[in-house]
Design goal:
The chain has 454 residues and is of the alpha/beta class. It is 39% helix and 15% strand. The chain contains 17 helices and 14 strands. The strands form 3 sheets. Strands 8-7-6-5-4-3-10-9 form an 8-stranded parallel sheet.
Length: 454
């Protein structure tokens, strides 16, 4: 990776570049640079900065400037799910609006919060990166339904933008798919992606993939639609076919058309090998949104900008490796630096204050103040005191636990206690001061009088 100036558009933009197998088409004139990260054109960046400036006065009181102020590429949090709107309804609204909407793939709650904070309207929980981060294992059918639902619940609770969950092949037959869809609904997902691979599944853009029959694949989508209806949900069903690589492009086009007829809301063919194939895909069921997978760093599908993808006909774009990839590289670099010098390279990590800002410490403290309850001191009258009266000879006359309120009332009748103000002596005291001696004196007869907290 390195820095390079883009030749596209009227402006020169600085961006991170990846080695790509597929060149940019000469017939296109994109307005945005090819990228794997949320880098913006000068016009878009200026608009974002104006929005940030307009909201900075109110935001500054809640949270000190962190990454949003430090980096021009970080933008205010996206609009997200509106009041009274379900996550799925928010996703449908976004997909119905113009544009190829970007959805970086996250693998945990922190990554999802960064996606939202960077201004993306959608987050995608990818099976590849969750399997890598949670298990340290390849995306080869090893991660389970339960692990994915558990991870997804943590992610959806951390953000206010719609989250799409990778449902792999549904983890079984049609009945398993119904359970998977219902579980993803309960976990808070706005959408679920289901593929037509056999079990155990293989990772996308890899060799050796096999798909189930046409009939079974269609039945799986119908089962997902039925599960949605039974749950009273509007979760978005993304039907994915891996048959492009397993069989042929013609088979993949046939399948996604059948998936649309079965009730799928969004269509996706993995590993499309050319722009021509991408255009042919988008021509199928034109009114049904299409998803593109920009596999960073060397997949089979051409890497195009959002503007180019929109022109072809895509409504949703996912980036499966960006966050997990840069996280792996950053952790490796930090560990090498720690081992050699005892600390990460200067400037390679955010400050502790920036980390706290990202995690929402200031917002937490502000909300916490709403629920602070003043701890009332216990009434001194309820504190139990131990009264001991011992004669000169050592004979113990009294050794009793008596509530302070009662002892104060009867103190006038006990020689040596007359005039003692126990209320004043117990000011600020509580039962946790057990054993504290409050009074130790002799009366006129020589008896020793001791009063302590019981």
């Amino acid at each position: 990776m390195g820095q390079k100036e883009s030749k596209y558009g009227a402006h020169l933009l600085t961006r991170l570049t990846l080695t790509l197998n597929n060149p940019m088409p000469s017939c296109q004139s994109p307005t945005h640079t090819t990228h794997s990260f949320p880098f913006l054109s000068p016009v878009s960046l200026a608009r974002r900065r104006r929005r940030l400036a307009a909201s900075s006065s109110s935001a500054a009181a809640d949270e000190p400037p962190g990454m949003a102020a430090r980096s021009p590429y970080f933008v205010p949090e996206s609009e997200g799910i509106r009041a009274g709107e379900s996550p799925a309804a928010a996703l449908r609204r976004i997909l119905a609006s113009p544009g190829a909407h970007q959805a970086p793939c996250c693998f945990d709650a922190l990554g999802a919060r960064l996606v939202q904070r960077a201004g993306f309207p959608i987050c995608f929980m990818g099976g590849f990166c969750v399997s890598a981060a949670r298990l340290g294992l390849p995306d080869a059918g090893l991660i389970s339904y339960g692990e994915m639902v558990d991870q997804g619940r943590l992610i959806t609770e951390a953000v206010s933008v719609p989250v799409i969950g990778d449902g792999d092949n549904g983890y079984g037959n049609a009945m398993n798919i119904k359970r998977t869809v219902k579980g993803y609904i309960n976990a808070g997902f706005a959408g679920i992606m289901l593929e037509d691979q056999v079990a155990p599944k293989a990772c996308g853009h890899t060799e050796g993939r096999k798909v189930i029959s046409r009939e079974e694949a269609i039945m799986h989508i119908k089962a997902a639609v039925d599960a949605r209806k039974e749950s009273g949900s509007d979760i978005v069903i993304i039907a994915r076919s891996d048959s492009r690589q397993a069989i042929s492009i013609d088979e993949a086009l046939w399948r996604v058309q059948a998936f649309a007829d079965a009730g799928a809301d969004v269509l996706f063919i993995d590993a499309l090998a050319s722009i021509e194939e991408m255009k042919a895909f988008c021509a199928v069921s034109p009114k049904v949104p299409k998803m593109a997978n920009m596999l960073e760093g060397g997949g089979k599908t051409p890497i195009l900008s959002p503007a180019e993808l929109q022109e072809i006909g895509f409504s949703l774009v996912v980036y499966p490796l960006s966050l997990i990839g840069v996280s792996m590289r950053a952790m490796e670099d930090a560990l090498i630096a720690i081992k050699s010098t005892g600390a990460p390279r200067p400037g390679s990590l955010p400050s502790f204050q920036e980390i706290k800002d990202t995690l929402g410490f200031n917002r937490y403290y502000k909300e916490e103040k709403q629920y602070v309850v003043e701890q009332a001191q216990p009434s001194s009258a309820n504190i139990v005191l131990r009264l001991k009266i011992t004669e000169k000879s050592g004979t113990q006359k009294i050794n009793e636990g008596i509530p302070a309120g009662i002892l104060e009332k009867i103190s006038k009748a006990i020689p040596g206690l007359a005039g003692v103000n126990f209320t004043e002596m117990l000011q600020g005291a509580d039962q946790s001061q057990k054993g504290k001696m409050l009074l130790d004196r002799e009366d006129a007869t020589g008896d020793r009088i001791q009063v302590s907290i019981e």
